[in-house]
Amino acid sequence: MLDQIPILSLIVFTPLLGVLALLFVPRHNGRLIQWIGIGTTFLPLLLSAWLYASFDIAKAGDQFAETLRWIHVSLNTELLERLGSVETYHVQFDYALAADGLSLPLVFLTALVASMAALASVTIKKRFKTYFILFLLLETGMLGVFLARDLFLFFLFFEITLVPMFFLIGIYGLYEREKAANKFLVYNGLGSAFMLIAFLILISTAGMTVEGSSFVYSGAYDTILKNMQDAASFANLGPELGQSFPNPFFLTEGNRTLVFFLLLIAFGIKLPIFPFHTWMLRVHTEAPPPIVMIHSGVLLKMGAYGLLKFGVFLFPSEAKQWAVLIAVLGVVNILYGAALAFVQKEFKLILAYSSVSHMGIVLLATAAMNGIGVQGAVFQMVSHGLISALMFLLVGSLYERTSSTQLSAMGGFAKSMPFMSGMLLIAGMASLGLPGLSGFVSELLAFLSLFDAMPILTAVGCLGIILAAVYVLRGVLAITFGPPKEASLGYKDARWIEAVPMIALTAFILLIGIYPAVLSEPLQTTIGGIEQWLAGADANGGG
Questions:
Q1: In this structure, what is the dihedral angle of CA atoms 33, 36, 39, 41, given to the nearest 10 degrees?
Q2: Which among 19, 143, 175, 476 is least surrounded, fewest beta carbons within 10 Å?
Q3: pLDDT (0 to 100) of residue 524
Q4: Is the entire prediction scored with pTM above 0.85?
C-alpha cells in the first residue's frame, strides 16, 4: 500500500503545512499558534511510525524510493561542436528520496525529538509565530537530510537546517545568544564549504555515467556508490569514448584521500570532533532548551550519519587506512569531554561536554569498520539522541522554576519534585550505561566492535564510562538529593505538558535497552551489503 503513497515526501514536507497555516494566523493569537505548531509536528511522527512498522526487514537496500527528474542542464553543444567534440555533456540532479536501515531509525528519532521539543516550546515567551515557523522549517530540513539520495538534494536540506537554527538561537537564546548564533553559523558554514567541494569532486568523477555518446554527471548516491565499487567503469568506456574522456581523477590514491579528509572535516565539525567543538558548547548553553533538545538530539547526528554514509561507505579503503586516526580522535573526544564535564559547576555545561564524550563513542565504533561497529554507531546516535533530549527537556523545566542551572543553586528536588527527579535519575543512569537502558547496548556494541583490532585504544576509551559515572552522578545527585535550598520546597512538579514528553522519551530509552532488536533488525537490511563492501575494499584496491 505504501508503494503507491509518496510517504517519504509526506514525512519531509508535512511540517510546511503548519508553516502555511501559521501565515494566516494573527501573531497576537499565541495559544492558537502554539497548538498549530505543536500539532503539525505530530504528523511526521505518525507517518514515520507507520513507515517504521511497514519497513520490510527481509528486504535489503533502499525501500519506498521516490525519484523525480528535477534539474537537467545540457552544456553548450554548439560550442563543443566548434571545438570538434562529438560527445554531449549533461548535468542532472534528481529529487530522490529513500529509506534504508541506517536512515529509518534516524528519521523516527528526528520526528520524535521534534514533537517532544515542540511540546517543551510552551515555555517560549515571545514571537510565537516566528518561532514555530522557523521550528517547522528546521524539522523539514532535518528529515530531508536523512532521506535524500542525491548529493545536491542532501546538501540543500543540510543547508536549510542552518538558517532557522541561526535565528532560533539568535532571537530566543540567553544573554550571549548572538555570539552563539554567529559561532554556530561560522563553524557550520565552514563545514558546508568543505562538504560542497567534496561533493563537486564526487559528482564530476564518480557521478559520471555514459549514455551513448553522452556523458551525464549526476548527484545520485546509488550511481556514485556503484562507480566507487566498480572503479573499472571509468577506464572501460570503450575505445572511442575512452580516448576523449580525461584521465579518471578518482583513481589516484591521493585524490581519494583528499576527498575523504574533506568529508571527515565537514562532518567532523558537525559531530563535533575535537578541536572543532567550541561552537557546540555555546549553543548548548545559550540556545533555548527546546532547541538544544533538537541540536543535541538530532543535529549532531547529522554529522555522524554523513560521516558513515559518505565518508566510510564511499571510501572504505581510506577509512581503513586512517582507522587508527579516527579511533584516536574518538578516544580524545571521550576523555576530553568526560574530564571537563567532571569539573563543571553548571549542569548545562556538564551535559554539553558529555555530548562531546558520547559522540566520541560513535567515532570509535566507526573506526572498527565492521558490521558490529556500524550497529554500535547507530545505536549510540539514537540512544544519545533520546537521552540528551530528555536531559535538556528536564534542564528547561528546572530553569523555568529556578532561573539557574548552576549546581550550587539547585538541590533537594527529590522532595518537592519527585517525578522530575525520577526522570532525571533515569536519564543519568542511561547516560552512564546502566544495563536495561539504551546507553548500555550502544556502548557495549561500540567497544566490542573495536576491541579485537585495537584493544589498547578500546581499553583507554572505556575509561570514559567510569568518568561518565562520576560526572553524571555528581550532577544528578546534587540536584535531586543535595542540600535543599530554601526556595526549592516551593517548586511545583512537572505539568502534564512537561510530563508527556518526559515519559515518551523515557519509554523509548527503556524499549531499546530491553528489546534492542527493534533497532537492530532494520539495520541488518543495510549492514549485510555494506559489510561485504567494507570487507572486500582492501582486496579490490578500494574506491
A1: -90
A2: 175
A3: 86
A4: yes
